[in-house]
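Ligand: pyridoxal-5'-phosphate. Inputs:
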Amino acid sequence: MPDVRSLYSEKVMEHFRNPRNVGEIENPDGIGHVGNPVCGDIMELYIKVNNGTIIDAKFKTFGCGAAIATSSMVTEMVKGKSIEEALGISNRAVAQALDGLPPIKMHCSVLAEEALKSAIEDYLDKSEKRSADGEGERTP
Amino acid sequence: MPDVRSLYSEKVMEHFRNPRNVGEIENPDGIGHVGNPVCGDIMELYIKVNNGTIIDAKFKTFGCGAAIATSSMVTEMVKGKSIEEALGISNRAVAQALDGLPPIKMHCSVLAEEALKSAIEDYLDKSEKRSADGEGERTP
Amino acid sequence: MKRIYLDYAATTPTRPEVVKAMLPYFTDAFGNPSAIHSYGQEAKGAVEEARVKVADLIGARDEEIVFTSGGTEADNFAIKGVAYGKESKGNHIITSSIEHHAVIEACKFLERRGFNITYLPVDAYGLVAPDDVRKTITDKTILISVMHANNEMGTIEPIAEIGRIAKEAEIHFHTDAVQTAGHVPVDVDELGVDLLSMSAHKLYGPKGVGALYIRKGTKLVSFMHGGGQERRRRASTENVPGIVGFGKAVELAKQEMNEEAERLSYLRDQLIKSLLERIDRICLNGHPTSRLPNNVNVSIDFVEGESMCLNLDLEGICASTGSACSSASLEPSHILLAMGLSHEQAHGSLRFTLGRWTTEEELARVLDVLPQIVTKLRAMSPLLKSRR
Amino acid sequence: MKRIYLDYAATTPTRPEVVKAMLPYFTDAFGNPSAIHSYGQEAKGAVEEARVKVADLIGARDEEIVFTSGGTEADNFAIKGVAYGKESKGNHIITSSIEHHAVIEACKFLERRGFNITYLPVDAYGLVAPDDVRKTITDKTILISVMHANNEMGTIEPIAEIGRIAKEAEIHFHTDAVQTAGHVPVDVDELGVDLLSMSAHKLYGPKGVGALYIRKGTKLVSFMHGGGQERRRRASTENVPGIVGFGKAVELAKQEMNEEAERLSYLRDQLIKSLLERIDRICLNGHPTSRLPNNVNVSIDFVEGESMCLNLDLEGICASTGSACSSASLEPSHILLAMGLSHEQAHGSLRFTLGRWTTEEELARVLDVLPQIVTKLRAMSPLLKSRR
Ligand SMILES: Cc1ncc(COP(=O)(O)O)c(C=O)c1O
Ligand SMILES: Cc1ncc(COP(=O)(O)O)c(C=O)c1O
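Predicted complex:
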């Protein structure tokens, strides 16, 4: 009898079974919202930033096993990282951290990278706005 | 385990194994020569006629199992028959007498019929000529 | 953990009786049916015996059955064969938008080569309207191909009605009966079809063998060119053990079909009813009654199909989905979209297909496990939140 | 009476080890490799393992192997696939006049559809001249297809030389290696081929499964359209047990090939020598040395092949012939005619192909029996008389 094999690596399946950081962050500092119903994967990624460091990250994902596992993994990877370090996380790094993804599932890791970038951009937009507002407060 | 089947009926195989009337007739009254190397079947059929009755028939055949069996069968069938009766032997009758032939082998029975017809024609030609010669002998 | 297999529409196990029937043809009666010697002739005899059985299942004559390598080849053969055989008459083919890829992709290939294909729409139940067929026929139409029942959502199409229309218009009519042959009654005369595709591995026979029924007089160009096998209609050394297995499977199917269809229809309806009771925001896909006896297909809002399947698999339950994320394809099921489902719904589809070894206990376990999985996945779904 | 099988070129028995390897995939690991659940994934894993083995036999990468339903499909896929894939570049195909029907008929199909085919002649040994290939190339040539070794008279063609010519001219090169793979060394790089056909049942694997090697970068249109299997290159549910069996057969072939080729070549040469000694007016067909290790093909004057085969069969000996009268076809072997044999000689051909279970005793029995059969048939041959 042959071995029972799996579509995904054990690491992917571990994250799929027990996804880390599921949920929303109340008053997040940044939200990333990527994907669309056509392709079948939708990710929302929330970050909390303190002093330029991501201190918390959560996600909500509608999607396949790889979409859930990459969401879970990317939230784990960013926690404790500076904004700059976080921007350096590539989709390959996420996939590698999961011991690889099947070729047709690599787009999920791309989505996870995009969700993170989008959340960080959102944070940067907001903080620019905040500092602009703050300056505004100071000037008049 | 399945039965061992054969391409041909038992009757065909019986005639193939032990063909009747193989050979040539010395001084035959008619010879039929049909077929050609391209199609792969060549038959020669010899008949001996006495008082309008075929008293002997022999054949030589280069060809497949069906060609040999139909040659054998047709020589058996004509013996003792009048010329007229023999002309009535169809290829189907030969095939039937062999308990049938595979569809792609029906042309062999056609060949056997043709060989017979050709031998009879040869006989008729010769006897016409003979009687013409005979008349010639009588007239002058 | 004993696994629960509920993916019988994808493939069935080969029945032990079938394997037993095949075995001698691998090692002992292994001849090539084209050979004139005894090994060849015993193999040929076995192939012809299987042909009679397959013909018998669908009310055909044995010389109207051509063995193929499966349902896909039968579909390709029928469609390309008629297209090339009839192209002097016209280049228009009518099919439906819910056909199996084997039909759709064969049509698309022809489309790229200058043929003109109409993909008929279906209603919310997945039904093709015979009247649409009638209206779409032109004097260039050479083939109509509508499947007997859909592999994904199980709807059984009004083939006999379409058959009458095709006959009247004197147009060749093909049906893909891969999901129905051996499961519900299939009779080529009652259906009025000229061509019909079957696949052994969908009816407890082996993978890699199927058949195309070709009504006598149907003009068809060969698909597999080469030697003179299958009365010169399909070249290649016959898959003798596979064909013998197909024959055995068909023989068993014929005996047991009616009883089994009744048993499965009951289980199917029970499962549908219980799923709709136990899970909210769920709906049945496909027709409620004109439906394959073994097919349950639902869409569950806010959750994605592959992640449901994977979670079920972790519980030992094997099901399938029409989601984009299913293994071989990247698009969501064209079938579900054609019925008017939204992309979210198509991605949230889940198919259970029942079979010979399915028990009430197995389905009870599905009903135990699935609601929890849905709850867990919905807790992480951004779709649910955005609709709150 | 124990039968003596000497028709291994027509088909081989499936080795018991191969059947054993296949068995679990019928009833237990029966999943559809496209399914994401465990049954699906274990089937997929088995297919991929087999792919590695097949690739390994011919020096290819596993992603360059596409499984098919046999040698015929591999040939059809290669020829029609390149024709359609490259038709914007040209419509000229070069092949030989001794190809298997699977190649010839695929070419004829294309010819009817506007392609331009050159069928190169062969010399008296059945050899294609590489120089003829070179001279026939035009700027419209898109494919060269020459078989590795001929199934009927066993001549091994100068593929590596033709490969160099094809490479230089940047033309896709296909070889039908159905008779060589697993029997003599085959390496796609040494041969310089872009496409190579194989069939499992010629190397002690099951019928109904084969493979096409497709060198990375070779532009090919699909032949079997449908689902996304085989990296979208060949649709249809994979014949999992068949593919597993193919893999096992290839694995065994690789281990035993060299020794077996040597053993068979010796037996072959003994048989040829003794036949020529014991029967008069007999000649060897095909090349005396550039020849498949297991092939003996002779023409015997004045007697017809089928009747020799039938007589041999009555003695329990299974052989084959290129005569018109052989079962599936009505024409005499185009291969023997292409070598310049007369129709009588082609009709008088007899082929013995040796294999794994062939013994010296078996061949001694052939030598005992055949001369009597020839004598008996010659006694009834009108050809002999007419030459006296
Ligand atoms: C409706 C339908 N048609 C065709 C096929 C193709 O059959 P196969 O996989 O045997 O090629 C299938 C199953 O895959 C099917 O469900
Ligand atoms: C040289 C050659 N090519 C192709 C084929 C066809 O292979 P298959 O019978 O597996 O389709 C054969 C044998 O039949 C062959 O000998």
